[in-house]
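Bench notes, afternoon.
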Amino acid sequence: MTKNLFKTLGLIGISIFMLTGCGDGETTVTDIQKPKVIEKTQEQKAVKIETHAAKQLPTGKSFNLNDVFKDAVKLAPNGKYEITIFEAQDDPYSAKLENDIYNSKELKDRLKNEFTTFSLDAKNNRMHKLQHEGKDLDVDTKTLLGIYNVKATPTLIFSDKKGKSIFVVPGYMPTKQFLVTLDFVKEQKWLGLNRKNGDVYKALKNYYLNHGIDVSKKIKK
């Protein structure tokens, strides 16, 4: 079952290549500093998760987003587009992302009302009932990390109304970029594009540029 799921939900590596680039002329999506490897949990020996080093950013928070994030026991779109965010409690950029959501009424309301949004702790292995194209599958967090090729936190998975992944954005996403990405999904700019050759990610990058967001950065000489 897991092997087939890898095939149907796969192609995640293309997203990392297309959105972060691999040449000297581009950096990560949000130009944050190089991530460092954090200690792996006992449950995740086969999956290396990275968090972004940023000592100036706090990891604690005095609020919760329980009204935004659905119970992750069952991962199902429930008739809406689905967003799954893989985070880590000790990752300052995961905390920054949640802080952005909390402080932006527009972003918070859209994630709550227009999308079915989940937050999963990448270092806490739990069992989930995953609904994918009408089928309920029993998977744990470790398996999901492998399915989506999650290598760093935060990582955001955007899926259609049947639970099938559309594209993945690895790394912290600022509020403006997050809102524009939601528009890209809702406007179905991805529909009919071939994910195998990276057309979805090319369209997303162009959509960003058309909305004043440059996800590439030329290195200063």
